Amino acid sequence: MDGVLHLASSGDKGFFDAAFLYIAGGALVVMALTVAFLGMRNKDFPSSRAQLRAVSGIAVVLVVCTVAGAVLSARYEQAERRAENEEAAKEAGAEEAANQAAEAPLTEGEAAEPGTATGEASSPQGSAAADGKALFVDSGCGDCHTLADAGTSGQIGPALDDVLPGMSAEMISTSIVDPGADVAQGFPDGVMPAVYGDQFTEDELNALVAYLGDVAGQK
């Protein structure tokens, strides 16, 4: 019951965030059209400083509301995407546990040999890399970065296959949570938002760093 209520409240929040964005944006468009119409009908409009201040003040309020609505809507979509990823990870874990339980009688009393299919499937490093790739793709990192293993070709930020090889895990982690600490040559500071340290859990960040460290440069 609690889960149902949580989903319902999340859906309502997303609806109101989107509605807020559409209303504020629509009001801004209506105001722009109204001002343009009045300006065409009356060349002296606005005819006084009071009118100019009123029009400017309303425009500023509507712009701020529109931007706030866009930010709220984007945050809601990111939260929904993360929730879907976590749910998918739980389902995959449950399926893997069920498969291991089904295979247990066949391997009882025997140690799994290195390099076997069973050993590879249960490798923590392999699992972390798989989770990191899903996080990279689902979080939209490929919209800004090129990474051959993920099949992405974003040009806004540096190509990860070129800049990440040779970097330590700590350096890769810092480049994600604090992108302004070491800006890649040829790219301006401030393009990559410094919000992922708050959005990603520690396990998610570690999985993403492990994945990037494993595959970057393997073109």
How would you concisely characterize the structure shown here?
By secondary structure, this protein is mainly alpha-helical.
Commentary on this structure:
With 219 residues, the protein is mostly helical. It has two domains: 115 residues; 97 residues, Cytochrome c-like domain (Cytochrome Bc1 Complex, Chain D, domain 2, Orthogonal Bundle), CATH 1.10.760. It is built from eight helices and two strands. A two-stranded antiparallel ribbon has the order 1-2. Strand 1 and strand 2 form a beta hairpin. Helix 4 crosses helix 8. It is elongated and about 80 Å long. The two termini are 48 Å apart.
Give the topology.
Blueprint: H1 2-41, H2 49-107, H3 117-121, H4 124-138, E1 146-147, E2 152-153, H5 160-163, H6 169-177, H7 196-199, H8 202-215
Antiparallel strand pairs: 1-2
Helix pairs in contact: 1-2, 2-4, 4-8, 6-8
End-to-end distance: 48 Å
Number of strands: 2
Mean pLDDT across residues: 75
Order of helices and strands: HHHHEEHHHH
- How many discrete structural domains? 2
Anisotropy-based shape: elongated
Supply Rg: 25 Å
Helix content: 55-70%
Q: What is the count of DSSP helices, taking H or I runs of 4+ residues?
A: 8
Would you tell me the structural class of the helices and strands? mainly alpha
Residue windows where pLDDT falls under 50 for at least 5 positions: 1-9, 106-123
Strand order of the largest sheet: 1-2
Strand percentage: under 5%
For the sheet with most strands, the description reads: 2 strands, antiparallel
User: Regarding quaternary structure, how should these chains be classified?
Assistant: single chain
